[in-house]
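User: I'm new to structure prediction. If I give you an amino acid sequence, what do you actually give back? Let's try with this one:
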Amino acid sequence: MTQQTDTSVRKTITVAAGQARAFEVYTAGFGSWWPKEHHIGDADMATCSFEPRVGGRWFETGVDGSECDWGRVLVWDPPHRLVHTWQLQGDWKYDGDPAKGSEIEIVFVAEGPNQTRVELTHRHFERHGDGADSVRNGVSSPQGYDYCLAQYVAAVLVG
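Assistant: Good question. You get back a string of structure tokens that encode the predicted 3D arrangement of the chain. For your 159 residues, that looks like this:
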């Protein structure tokens, strides 16, 4: 029997905001904090968004109005939890086949009226096939989730 090694990337941060605000800034405000240089479209990125429903798109909009998908929403449970696919492959291009997408789960745990623990788990990198190591190495690099979540923490503090 072969034992599968868990290659998930996990990050936990605490933000100075209530659970509902933490969820709102992460989701509806995603384009306000996600680094603009982290885009895959041909045009520079104007914003990045989630459609707030199961089956909704996770996508970027370019400064020229073009759109480029990144994945789909699997679980939309405000203000507690969001799960969506990451359908960017090792070459950082979108693949429309959800079976080839890894998953990102974000859980928002209230620790007080103005404090929320945010737990991010990115899992199922093996679904990316030959690109699995590239995707995992990218998100776990210093310019990956650590950098992006620092931008999120700053955005929570603004409002």
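You can read the tokens as a compact description of the fold. Here is one thing that stands out. The mean pLDDT is 95.
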